[in-house]
Structures
1.
Amino acid sequence: MKDKLDQELKSRMEGYTDQLPDVVRQRIDLTLSSLPAAGGGTARSGAAFSRTGRKAWRLAIGAAALLIVVGIVSVFAVPSLAERIRSLFARDNVDIGLLRAQEFGLVHHPKIKVKDKGYTVKVDEVVADPTRVVMALQLFGPDGRHDRDLLVFGDDNQVTIKDETGRIVGSLYDYGLTPDFYYLVAFFPEPLQTDSITLEGQLTSLGNEIQNIPVTHGDWSFRFSVDMKEAKKQTKETPFEGSYTSPDGMTIRLKRLTQMVQGVRLELETELSEEALSRSPGELWNKQMLKFHFEDAGGNEIHSVNTKKSPHRDSLMSYSQIPGNKPGLMYWSFTFKYLPPDQPYRFVFDGYSIAETDGSAVEFEPATLLDQPVTFQSFGDEIVLRKFTVESPPDTNGNVPEGALHVNGNLRNENSFNKYIVLGVDGKEYTVTERGGSSGIGSGWKDHKITLSGYRPELFYQFRMAQLQTISDKLIFKRTVVDRLYSNVDWTLAGPVLRK
């Protein structure tokens, strides 16, 4: 049985450690474990301690341990010091890319500290590879506390990234995610080839007009370089080849996977048949979207792209699509945070969408819509025309009255590239702008529904016509371009096993 000193020491330590970070609790546990047992000690040469000597020695050790605990707690009780241990690798912030960077020793510590007007900007951690740059930036006020609201990134505050030639290759933005620091991120759609990058911070304004925080002008600018050569050495390219042609004329060809420290990049290309191209003349064929996901050997989702299935997993960091040297050919790249190493997985193609011409139309009488709604139907989409009004400023897109067609409905297709017009019976065409929101949801990979609604529950989705300032006897609602969704695909391809 431990004596009263042991019990008091244990009680004090447990009381302190309940509210401490893990790293501090570990240090205290180490201190506790180093204390000798109550009933004896380690065999030593020479005479054994007397009862009085052992008691005095244990008292000294216990007091020292208690002082250590109190000292540690005191440090973490000071806000300005407590803030400094907050890290990209804190439990709530870390992702697999950051862990890999830490594993390879690619966490940089620029030790930036800039003071002006009583405020201090600090940058202690940066992770960079050809995929992305992640920076932890902190801002301390005159009271020594970290402030997460004062620094707003925009024209006055920017952090740009330059390659070794001085060319700007990206800029960091505030990713949010944590109140502990400004979590700044830049993603690169194409892997950087440079051997070094320079990060230049131009910070000249502190304040937040949205939150009514007064603005303070000063200069908290900084500049430092990051060596990229070691990160580039970790880049591995693996062939991932296969092709599939959909029933409606899109061929997809997988090319390769590129493993980088903070991500995995998939490269592929798509090509449209002549018949598919005829449905998307001019530049319409450029307006495409792909839908796919990765799954493990048990059919469990790893992550997905452009799905409306709920719930789903998303680890896409960036993507690019570049038209090829002939109509219908498109080059794609998708960069994910990870694909599981040393495990089998599959690529599953879920479909695609593309802008196509559409001439579907419906005639309606604006004055009678409220009592006799009219339904527009095309390619599985259904939009119900509910009422027609003429709205006046300031509830308009300009300083003149405009017509407003109030609708609701559900779309089976996508909603990124649809185009609508309103026609008078005399053939006059009215340009349409849209006002409202849309939400998509699905239970599976290929089924989904997009619902059109107003900004508030009591409002409808609206099509606005600035040139139409009176209520006509008859009008025609017409869709000229449909963002056509094709989900009638069936292709799965096993991926190459990636090594750490």
2.
Amino acid sequence: MMFSLFLAAALQVATPAPAQAEGPPEGPVDTEQKSDSIDDSRAAPTPAPADETDAAASDPKVANQEMLIRKSLATWQGGAAKHDGKVGCVTKQTTGDKQIDAIRCGAIVTCFTPVAPKLDALEANEALTDEERQRQMAAVSETTAPCLKAYTDKAIGILAKTRAGE
């Protein structure tokens, strides 16, 4: 099952202006990408919200890295899919940078796993018209936007600080 149709709106919210974040997301994030393949190994807990008092973004090197990462991340294309009952990430267009691709895939797996049962139920509901099913699935998928944004902001902040040498 592909959720990618419903992922687009939520992902647009997930890559705003540079974030101020510190510390890695909890849990491992596999950085290996496989184009057009499902990867369900990127699961990680939702990271804590970015610390608004963090001054790292005021460092020009960190801010520049955040800008470069966000620009690259905007070129990523893919979505969520289920394989063997687990939410995974499908990369259709890689950024060319495994660490940046892993940000998006980590966010997708982390944020879509909790809503997958709702999406599955809607997909299986034969009483719904195709139009109503798509509308309801899009609404459920849009609820992932805050999670996608928080995860993405936190991970970009971490990677930017690492690449800036901090």
